[in-house]
Amino acid sequence: MSVYDYHARTLQGKEKPLSDYQDQVLLIVNTASKCGLTPQYRGLQELYEKFHDQHFEILGFPSNQFAHQEPGGSEEIEEFCQVNYGVSFPMFEKTDVKGANAHPLFKHLTEKAPGVLGSKAIKWNFTKFLVDKQGRVIKRYAPQTTPDKIEEDIKKLLGNSSSN
Hints:
Thioredoxin_domain, Glutathione peroxidase, Glutathione_peroxidase
């Protein structure tokens, strides 16, 4: 199985097959609006703007599972992301990313790219997963890893190792 075998519901409530993102490099991130790491939205948007035209997508999945730092509904989340950070990459409905009710996509991501010491659980907001154009999970990044630190790995998967 690859990430393309899953579906998720957008913030607008539409069921979206992830196969729509086939042949693109993906960065899948669990997000939150009221977290100390929330300013990473700015860096994520910068990556998106820099590489989107090279077959790169960021998929944001808000989650309220970490200290209830995503309390709002879909409209509130969308407005917050656009007004405060200019987010234009795809955002999905609030999603469980750990535990018994974790979305199947996140079960797949954590199985393919376990964390430190082999832990499969997502420990906090802004855990990031890099996926290649074939839908394979390549790497997992800790919440504290800022988007700019992922840029070189994205360039390699896009076949662009030179600096812009």
